[in-house]
Fold this protein.
Amino acid sequence: MLSTLKFVLFTAMSIAMIFTAVYLTVLNTYKPAVKTYINGEFVGYFTDEQQFDEVYNDLVAEKQSIDENVKVYLESEPTFEQSYIKDSVLEEQNVYTNLRAEIKTEYTIYDLVVDGEEMKFTAEEQAEDYIEKLKAEIDNVDAKITVEKVSELEGITSTDRADDILASVIDRNKPVEPVYEEPVYVSNQYAASVYTGAVAAVADGTKCWPTVSHTVNCDYWGYYGHNGIDLAGSSGTPIYAYMGGTVVFAGWDSSGYGNCVKINHGNGLVTIYAHQSAIYVSAGQVVNAGDTLGGIGMTGWATGNHLHFEVKLNGVSVNPWPYLNACN
Ligand SMILES: [Zn+2]
């Protein structure tokens, strides 16, 4: 009886010891962990949800170091399943690599198109700064920013590259300063052969030098085809009627005279006053010698302010000097 009791006790103790040994072995080899899923896909074992959050936050910071405005997200909230896992499995996996593959990014790109050049910036201020710099240098800047959302950062324009493009766009669009070209003087070398000596029989009366200055900028045939005399004068300087007559034209002449007055003095004689900045008479008006017809200008084909004074006899341009020399 006693021996039977001893045997039972011994057996029970043995079983208890075996269970303890097995329990301790399992505890040392297997660790508690959370099996993690995103969007139904297994992404790895984390020791707990807190470790998952730490890894996720590290990866967000990693993306933000490239572009601070990036939007980082997961396709769905993670789900966790409590389990036990072998140490070796935990050690072999890389939770950073696993989770990095699941992270989604959305970058905002500011596309700037200027004069056929395209640039991509990650910061809106950078694109706006660029346009400001451009506006400071050239007029009528045609620049447009469009916003684009992309999952990967590609083809971003570096600051150096943007500066280079800025310089070349400015260079291409700089306004060209008008250059005043002095007329080429060839004195009267053509005048003698062109002037036939025909002078209209002008009626007696006052003949007036047609403006204030007697300085000749370009003589009759001073260059080939120049069929008048250019007299110096600043914009607005009065222009006087050479002789009495009737205004036959006062207005814009698109053949090169610009604002122009023509006076018919009779006997086939017409005087022309070209490039005016202002006109004070109108067609049909009767004028006397010395009446103000308008102001000197540079309208029509003119590179600077002057009066182009021209004399026509029976419709043909003639040398104005015999007429001007007759001025009182
Ligand atoms: Zn001229």
